[in-house]
Amino acid sequence: MPDSPVQSALTEGYRRFREKSWHPQRERWMQLKEGQSPKVMVIACSDSRVDPSQIFDVDPGEIFVVRNVAAMVPPFETNPGHHGVSAALEFAVQVLEVEEVLVLGHGMCGGCKAALTQSMHGAEPGRGGFIADWIELLDEAREEVAHDHGTESREAERAMEQAAVKVSIQNLRSFPCIQAKEAQGKLSLRGAFFAISDGVLHWLDEASGKFTPVR
């Protein structure tokens, strides 16, 4: 079977990676084969436009990343099921012993927009239902955003995107291992927002609840 255009493009990308990244950093890769010791875990959106490694310009092995729709963290639960985000979080905090967990939201987020407009509410699994169930994590925050900004404007969407970061940080603190390590000063939680339209990163000040752009 001949390569598809997508496979061909990926192969060419791999060749560029080997030439421009792997070979010049071969010593680094030899170290990484022995294990990883990132200091930061980044929880980001699966959106193809928001790659944490590109935004923060980090080398291989520097950040431990989990990505999902809208960069959400579910609250701590012990019910049976496949808890992918919780498993990644547990590994990063308990095994890798990262020093910081960063929740990275972004502009023009389709998941947050769907949460705001409830466009997938009532959809069947496989036809939007999985997304609808997932973004129900934002239902409570949505009520406040909709009350203050409505549901149709870009201002409302941005408010929802930034509220989602705060919800995930709140849910992070429901995990006993995070509660303990944060209390001991061994772990910090941070929030950030990346605006796709202008490429500006904003850091969350939890005390004020405001996002401040990086100058």
Q: Based on Cα principal axes, name the global outline.
A: globular
Q: What is the SS-derived class?
A: alpha/beta
Averaged pLDDT, please?
Answer: 96
**How many DSSP helices?**
9
Detail the poorly predicted runs. none
Largest sheet: 6 strands, mixed
Query: Gap between N and C termini, in Å?
Result: 51 Å
Q: In which range does the helix fraction lie?
A: 40-55%
Describe the structure.
- This protein has 215 residues and is α/β, with parallel strands linked by helices.
- It is 44% helix and 17% strand.
- It contains 9 helices and 6 strands.
- Strands 2-1-3-4-5-6 form a 6-stranded mixed sheet.
- Helix 5 crosses helix 8.
- The longest helix has 19 residues.
- It is globular and about 55 Å long.
Keywords:
single chain, globular, 9 helices, 44% helix, alpha/beta, six-stranded mixed β-sheet, 215 residues
Structure summarized in a few sentences:
The chain is built from nine helices and six strands; from the N terminus they run ααβαβαβαααααβββ. The chain is an alpha/beta fold and 215 residues long.
Secondary-structure map with pairings?
Elements: H1 5-22, H2 26-32, E1 40-45, H3 52-55, E2 63-68, H4 84-95, E3 100-106, H5 110-117, H6 129-135, H7 139-149, H8 154-172, H9 176-183, E4 188-195, E5 200-205, E6 210-213
Parallel strand pairs: 1-2, 1-3, 3-4
Antiparallel strand pairs: 4-5, 5-6
Helix pairs in contact: 5-8, 7-8
